[in-house]
């Protein structure tokens, strides 16, 4: 008896301490917009925008990852993560936001954000919705990519101040919901405010699951009591007819819609805590049933513009024919946002452009004119998942990210997006840090294209988490290392070509010609420029997605990553010169080097059905890397944007530059053709005959690469493929054409070779030096 | 002359490509060339010609420029060709103390006399595709150390050494042939330890007069007698590159060898306990170790690689080493042989055991035990035939022969240098060319044996030690030819000696072994080959203001993001992708400032395969906020930061990892 008394005493004391603690918590109630978590969060995360998209890991149940997660700030230091692949909330938590971990955040090569607080509830990695069966079995072929549209479709989201409205369709029934939170009596309730249409079919949603918990439903409250005594309560408030809560034997709470359940506005409140506090739940269900208005847009988030001044002529080509103008990026901005441009396009009038950043923002800039003296930047959108591509179609902005192609709608014409529409989210995305979705282009028919990198391992060699030790390296999912084609209306996505490693940029030409670059690494001996055809396989065997292994398509041209010429170790995008005001290269293809921050003219030809060509540098000095290029429809000049994110010669975090034709004679090679006996080079200007015909002014060397599983390739001799090195090719003669513009080089021999480098130092008729290095690939000889 | 020619080809350049005549503008007119430059040193009317890798030298005041000439004011004249792929215009300049004249294609392009300074750049010189004749004449100053480093620059690039692969000389050069023959003769004299028997020259005149041989004390506990008999009977038959001569001759050779072995076998180490060989299952890891340490640089692969007379086979290890002794030997090869060429890889006991297990697993069966018990006869032979001239042992030698000064030149065809075994003198199996070289050397006044020239020491021993078998051949190894112009000699000496406590490139599976006896002179010699002084000149105190800007530069925000690949002290590199860089805390003590500058300015000019980005273009930086984008000033700021060594403050935009 005494013993028991003693125990009781102790329990009492403990309870007293607990109540004192909870009292003190009550004495200092959390204020709305309390900054505590914001102060401790990483500067790479925004506290003044309602969400951040990323791959986000929750703490439970086991392996609970949102491959395409939206971490939403719910106020009251509460947060929830929505998974747009599975149309479910992965977790609700309190405390701090998410960890700023991963390549686009702290730069780590491996890993991604995780929830950074006390998780209160979660759902297993299963579809968030199901039909009458309510089994929530994953119908996907692999655990990546969205649910089949017949079950559910992610439609997009609306941003209204700090409120997000999620928009999706389940079994034909339209659903909007706004997550929020409520704090009363020291308890945090996670609130899902719904607005649903009349249910076309019977359906239910998996709201939360507590493994091993006992569930019971009393009226509009479903309670799960876990083995440890903790309680999860889900309350349904204002349910329309036919909508109810259920629990299952396996510890799930379901929100059930009968077929024909009425349309309505209602809410769910989710709470988790000690059983002693369960009585406080009821208070959390109070309040109005109304969604914050979202359909017509909201007041702007970032009303203040950022004004910068461009700098004209920061560098020029030796012949002064091209100069570089810098469009100063809004790196000093009131929101402390990093600016790292990954996508860029112009509006129809050419005085305005939109640029997306790796950090998920979209900026617009106006004032693009001759002087660039007042560039007016506005933040247009935010929160995207590594948006490294941007295209404007009919003055509507589209971006490509890891999760989807987003189409942006400024509903109230205030210069900011209000509705972030999912144009197509069929792309698969696993946890791999290296699964970049690069670039966004359209073909003449209006179809969209993106290209997705493979899940390269942290050290750069090989792919994916093969030994289960580094899940942050990801998995080879259906779209890893592929080019994807999306129909003009966004309804269909198909794999267009496979076998890419890290193709940071591509291009679709005016005739629908498609080119990509890639990046040296496993199965990629050096940087290629591929001439992409539908169904083609471009080299990385792990990412071929076909068995047996398809025929490998030789690239149009290889660019060496070794050597003092510093050509290209990491390709960027390409662009066709569809301008008549950009000097003599109209109709030609240009290539950008991300790694070496350079611009190249690509001189290509088709021989015996095979594309091949050579490249020569147009030497201007970019502000940062060279990744995305467009010609401005108004001034006809080339604009290039880039960022510093991984290995590059770029030192500045971002750059947006104009390569402007200076209306001076260009001194450069313009075309090249392989002949039976050598190479024919056509120049933009007449040449000095004596210098052009002196073989001492040319040097030709050649070598091969080994395409293999190792990282990149050394250079190997043609005559002794085991020996490293470049071999000279004798230039037997050089003949200048009658018009003085074409030199025909007779070589000791011509043969198919992966790399041939032609250097020359000749002079133009006007006396100017022409000193250039061409690298070419010979796939076929005419 | 075949041997001399071979020496010429392998000297200095290691793996450098032979200049192909196809590169020449007029192939048929081009002379036949070989890599390297011919350099003629002249002191007081006496000349000596050798091969030099570049237009560089450093000679301390009062020291000789070449072993073959007296110390004193000298001239050095380099003759040869620069081969360029394509015509272009270049400028030259020189850092020197003394006077220089540079002639390109017979035109004087640079002529200057300076007391410790750098000349103005020459005017632009056109070099044509193919071979361009170049002659550089340097005259030492009247006082002070003599040095010169010629540099050149292409129009868009910074000043740099002329690439070694571009330099060559005309093979038709009698003075050079003579100079190289004398070098070979001197080298054979030193390497074969002639001075150990033919005493006379001061044993301290040359550091490598100290070259020794395995100690006999306790050798019976370390080596199997049966194998020693086999070895002594004919060392060259066992190992093509053996330096030990054949000491037993005629019909009694086998019995004598066995007697010697019996005696040596009796020299037990009292403290030694019978060892056992490592467990055979350790061989799996040993094989990996054998590969990652690049043992094949000097050894034939136990898997049965291509036969290579220059490499040491490992088939006999079971016959040679007493059980367990191979492990001990691998752990400390110098324990009983100071100047052994086998370096110390600082293997742990486990690693040595694994390596031994692997090598033993592929070795031939042990020899039957030695039958001879003629220990007394063996002892008599060891003490009387001259073994103890090179080997230390418990006994005193009774052997005596002519002193060095008594060896008349015309008799250098007899005795040790006879074409065939005389039955008495040690037999070295010298080739005809080697004997000719020794004879030519004998004709000189032989004072070259009193002149130590560190550059010559470094050239010779780096060749003997097969440095270039790894450096320049395997991924991750810096090319050997740049090391003297890259590393501070003080640090290089410590590193070669195995005294640096850290591994500069911890990600490499391979590791730099140590060569403690060779280290000091090697480091100084390599530096002097590059025109670098043996002691790194003191720099002014660290410019704190510049160092603080350097600290910004290494970071991501406003910097070059160096920290993505380079660790900084305890801060690990943040984004290593394929290629890590060396921890900055080590850089300041390792690198010569001039090299650091050149490397950062354009690393691809030094290593065409490096992943290190090229940030600067024509002297300009992409970061224009500091020093108006001036590359030289920005690199100096980085250097001032780097100089702080392990005390360097962390970059501002990175947190120290726990």
Task: Give an overview of the whole structure.
The complex is a heterodimer of chains A (782) and B (658). With 782 residues, chain A is mostly beta strands. Helix content of chain A is 5%, strand content 42%. In chain B, strands 1, 2, 3, 4, 5, 6, 7, 8, 9, 10 and 11 form an eleven-stranded antiparallel β-sheet that branches. Chain B is globular and about 85 Å long. The N and C termini of chain B lie far apart (63 Å).
* Tally of helical segments of chain B: 21
Distance between the termini of chain A: 105 Å
Mean pLDDT of chain B: 92
Greatest interface by residues involved: A-B, 45 and 39 residues
Salient structural properties:
heterodimer, A: 782 residues, mainly beta, twelve-stranded antiparallel β-sheet, eight-stranded antiparallel β-sheet, 4 helices, 5% helix, 42% strand, elongated, disordered N terminus, B: 658 residues, alpha+beta, eleven-stranded antiparallel β-sheet, 30% helix, 13% strand, globular
């Amino acid at each position: 008896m005494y013993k028991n008394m003693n125990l009781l005493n102790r329990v009492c004391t403990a309870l007293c301490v607990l109540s004192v603690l909870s009292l003190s918590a009550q004495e200092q109630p959390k204020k709305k917009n309390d900054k505590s978590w914001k102060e401790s969060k990483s500067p790479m995360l925004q506290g003044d925008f309602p969400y951040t998209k990323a791959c986000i890991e929750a703490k439970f149940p086991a392996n609970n990852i949102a491959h395409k997660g939206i971490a939403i700030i719910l106020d009251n230091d509460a947060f929830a993560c929505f998974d747009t692949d599975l149309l479910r909330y992965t977790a609700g938590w309190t405390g701090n936001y998410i960890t700023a971990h991963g390549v686009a955040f702290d730069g780590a090569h491996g890993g991604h954000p995780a929830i950074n607080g006390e998780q209160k509830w979660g759902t297993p990695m299963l579809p968030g919705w199901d039909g009458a069966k309510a089994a929530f079995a994953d119908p996907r072929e692999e655990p990546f990519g969205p649910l089949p549209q017949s079950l559910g479709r992610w439609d997009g989201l609306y941003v209204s101040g700090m409120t997000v409205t999620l928009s999706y369709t389940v079994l034909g029934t339209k659903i909007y919901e706004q997550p929020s939170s409520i704090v009363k009596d020291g308890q945090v309730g996670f609130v899902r405010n719904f607005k649903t249409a009349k249910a076309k079919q019977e359906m239910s949603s998996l709201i939360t699951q507590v493994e091993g918990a006992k569930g019971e439903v009393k009226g509009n409250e479903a309670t799960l009591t876990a083995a440890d005594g903790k309680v999860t309560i889900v309350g349904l408030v204002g349910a329309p007819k036919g909508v109810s809560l259920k629990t299952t034997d396996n510890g799930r709470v379901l929100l059930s819609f009968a077929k024909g359940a009425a349309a309505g506005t209602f809410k769910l409140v989710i709470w988790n805590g000690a059983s002693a506090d369960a009585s406080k739940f009821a208070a959390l269900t109070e309040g109005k049933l109304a969604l914050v208005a979202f359909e017509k847009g909201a007041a702007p988030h970032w009303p203040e513009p950022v004004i910068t001044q461009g700098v004209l002529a920061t560098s020029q080509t030796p012949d002064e024919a091209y100069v570089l103008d810098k469009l100063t990026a809004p790196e000093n901005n009131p929101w402390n946002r990093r600016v790292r441009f990954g996508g860029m396009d112009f509006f129809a009038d050419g005085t305005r452009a939109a640029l997306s950043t790796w950090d998920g923002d979209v900026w617009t800039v106006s004032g693009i004119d001759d002087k660039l003296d007042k560039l007016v930047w506005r933040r247009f959108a935010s929160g995207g998942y590594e948006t490294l591509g941007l295209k404007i179609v009919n003055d509507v902005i589209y971006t490509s990210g890891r999760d989807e192609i987003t189409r942006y709608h400024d509903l109230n014409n205030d210069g900011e997006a209000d509705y972030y529409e999912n144009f197509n989210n069929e792309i698969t995305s696993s946890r791999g840090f290296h699964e970049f979705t690069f670039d966004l282009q359209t073909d003449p028919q209006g179809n969209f294209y993106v290209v997705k990198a493979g899940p390269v391992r942290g050290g750069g060699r090989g792919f994916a988490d093969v030994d289960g030790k580094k899940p942050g390296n990801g998995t080879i999912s259906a779209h890893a290392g592929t080019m994807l084609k999306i129909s003009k209306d966004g309804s269909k996505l198909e794999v267009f070509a496979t076998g890419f490693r890290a193709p940071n940029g591509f291009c679709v030409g005016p005739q629908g010609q498609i080119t990509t670059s890639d990046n040296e690494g496993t199965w990629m001996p050096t940087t290629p420029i591929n001439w992409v055809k539908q169904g083609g396989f471009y080299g990385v065997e792990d990412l071929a997605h076909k068995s047996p292994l398809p025929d490998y398509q030789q690239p149009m041209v290889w660019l060496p990553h070794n050597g003092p010429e510093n050509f290209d170790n990491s390709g960027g995008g390409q662009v066709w010169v569809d301008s008549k005001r950009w000097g003599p290269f109209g109709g030609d293809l240009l290539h950008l080097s991300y790694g070496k921050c350079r611009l190249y003219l690509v001189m290509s030809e088709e021989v015996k059905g095979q594309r091949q060509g050579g490249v020569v540098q147009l030497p201007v000095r970019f502000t940062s890397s060279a990744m995305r290029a467009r010609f401005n429809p108004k001034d006809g000049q080339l604009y290039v944007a880039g960022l510093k994110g991984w290995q590059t010669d770029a030192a500045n975090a971002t750059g947006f530059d104009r390569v402007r034709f200076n209306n001076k004679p260009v001194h450069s090679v313009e075309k090249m053709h392989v002949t039976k006996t050598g190479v024919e080079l056509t120049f933009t200007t007449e040449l000095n005959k004596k210098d052009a015909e002196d073989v001492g002014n040319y040097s030709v060397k050649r070598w091969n690469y080994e395409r293999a599983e190792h990282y990149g390739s050394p250079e190997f001799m043609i005559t002794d493929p085991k020996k490293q090195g470049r071999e000279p090719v004798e230039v037997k003669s050089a003949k200048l054409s009658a018009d003085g513009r074409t030199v025909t080089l007779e070589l000791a021999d011509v043969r198919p070779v992966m790399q041939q480098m032609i250097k020359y130092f000749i002079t133009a008729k006007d006396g100017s030096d022409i000193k250039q290095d061409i690298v070419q690939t010979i796939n076929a000889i005419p | 002359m075949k041997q001399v020619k071979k020496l010429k080809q392998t000297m200095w350049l290691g793996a450098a490509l032979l200049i192909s005549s196809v590169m020449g503008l007029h192939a048929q007119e081009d002379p036949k060339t070989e890599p390297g430059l011919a350099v003629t040193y002249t002191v007081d009317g006496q000349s000596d010609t050798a091969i030099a890798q570049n237009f560089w030298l450093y000679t301390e005041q009062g020291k000789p420029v070449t072993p073959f000439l007296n110390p004193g004011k000298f001239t050095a004249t380099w003759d040869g060709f620069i081969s360029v792929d394509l015509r272009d215009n270049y400028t030259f300049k020189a850092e020197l103390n003394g006077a220089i004249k540079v002639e390109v294609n017979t035109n004087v392009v640079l002529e200057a006399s300076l007391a410790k300074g750098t000349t103005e750049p020459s005017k632009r010189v056109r070099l044509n595709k193919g071979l361009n004749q170049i002659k550089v004449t340097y005259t030492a100053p009247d006082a002070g150390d003599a040095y010169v480093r010629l540099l050149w620059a292409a129009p868009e690039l910074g000043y740099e050494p002329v690439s070694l692969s571009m330099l060559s000389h005309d093979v038709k050069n009698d003075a050079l042939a003579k100079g190289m023959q004398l070098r070979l003769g001197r080298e054979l004299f030193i390497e074969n330890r002639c001075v150990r028997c033919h005493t006379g020259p001061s044993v301290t005149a040359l550091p490598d007069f100290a070259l020794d041989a395995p100690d006999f004390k306790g050798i019976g506990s370390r080596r199997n007698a049966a194998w020693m008999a086999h070895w002594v009977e004919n060392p060259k038959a066992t190992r093509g590159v053996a330096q030990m001569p054949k000491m037993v001759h005629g019909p009694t050779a086998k019995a004598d060898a066995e007697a010697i072995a019996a005696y040596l076998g009796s020299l037990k180490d009292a403290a030694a306990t019978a060892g056992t060989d490592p467990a055979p299952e350790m061989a799996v890891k040993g094989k990996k170790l054998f590969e990652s340490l690049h043992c094949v640089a000097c050894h034939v692969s136990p898997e049965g690689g291509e036969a290579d007379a220059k490499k040491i086979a490992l088939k006999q290890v079971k016959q040679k080493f007493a059980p367990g002794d191979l492990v001990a030997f691998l752990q400390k090869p110098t324990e009983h042989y100071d100047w052994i060429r086998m370096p110390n890889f600082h293997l742990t006991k486990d690693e040595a055991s694994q390596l031994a297990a692997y090598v033993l697993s592929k070795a031939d069966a042990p020899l039957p035990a030695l039958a001879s018990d003629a220990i007394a006869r063996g002892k008599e032979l060891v003490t009387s035939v001259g073994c103890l001239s090179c080997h230390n042992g418990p006994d005193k030698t009774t052997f005596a022969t002519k002193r060095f000064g008594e060896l008349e030149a015309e008799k250098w065809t007899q005795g040790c240098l006879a074409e065939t075994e005389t039955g008495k003198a040690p037999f070295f199996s010298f080739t005809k060319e080697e004997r000719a070289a020794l004879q030519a050397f004998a004709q000189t006044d032989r004072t070259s044996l009193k002149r130590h020239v560190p550059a010559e020491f470094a050239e010779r021993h780096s060749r003997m030690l097969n440095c270039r078998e790894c450096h320049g051949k395997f991924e991750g190894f810096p090319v050997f030819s740049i090391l003297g112009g890259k590393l501070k000699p003080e640090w290089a000496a410590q590193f070669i000696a195995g005294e640096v406590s850290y591994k500069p490139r911890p990600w490499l599976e391979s590791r730099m072994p140590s060569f403690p006896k060779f280290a000091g002179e090697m480091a100084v010699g390599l530096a002097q080959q590059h025109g670098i002084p043996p002691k790194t000149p003191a720099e002014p105190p660290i410019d704190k203001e510049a160092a603080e800007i350097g600290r910004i530069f290494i970071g991501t925000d406003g910097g070059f993001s160096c920290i993505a690949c380079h660790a900084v002290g305890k801060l690990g590199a943040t984004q290593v992708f394929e290629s890590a860089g060396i921890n900055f805390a080590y850089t300041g003590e390792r690198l010569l400032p001039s090299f650091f500058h050149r490397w950062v300015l354009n690393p691809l000019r030094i290593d065409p395969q490096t992943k290190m980005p090229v940030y600067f273009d024509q002297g300009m930086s992409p970061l224009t906020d500091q020093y108006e984008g001036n590359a030289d000033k920005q690199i100096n700021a980085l250097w001032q930061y780097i100089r702080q060594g392990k005390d360097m403050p962390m970059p501002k935009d990175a947190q120290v990892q726990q």
